[in-house]
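It would be a great kindness if you could assist me with a short task in structural biology. A protein sequence and the C-alpha cells that stand for its backbone fold form the material at issue. I should value your view on which stretches of the chain appear to form regular backbone elements. The record follows directly beneath this note.
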Amino acid sequence: ASIKPLTEVGVLTNTTPFNYTLGVTGGLPAHPHNLARMVQAEPNTETWSLTALESNAWKMRAAALSLGGHLRVGFEDGIALPNGDAADSNGSLVTAAVQLVHAVGLEVASLEDAKSLFLSNNSE
C-alpha cells in the first residue's frame, strides 16, 4: 500500500520515519525484490527502516542497508543470528547487526544521531 494518501492529507511528511515490515502472515514475503519495489514506490521517504521476520531476515537487512535504509533488530523480531543459531541476548543480535553494517561499508549511527533521525522528525 502507498503512503501517498497519508502524505496528501498531511498525516505524514517526507521526514516522517517509516518502517517496512516484510515476512509477516498476510504481508509481502521477505524478498529483496519486494523491498526494492516498495522503496522505489515511495521515493520521498527520507528515513526508513526494515523489520524482516522470515528465515532470510539477515539477507533482507543487508538489502535494506544497500537501499539506504536503517535496521531494526531484537528478540521481538526474531532470535536467529546470521548463521542460524539462536541468539543468547539482544546484545548478540545488535553485535551481528553492527558487523553487517560495517561489512557493507557503512557506519553505525550514534545514539544522538539515531534520536535525531527517528524521534525529532515526529514532532513536525
User: Anything to note?
Assistant: The radius of gyration is 15 Å.
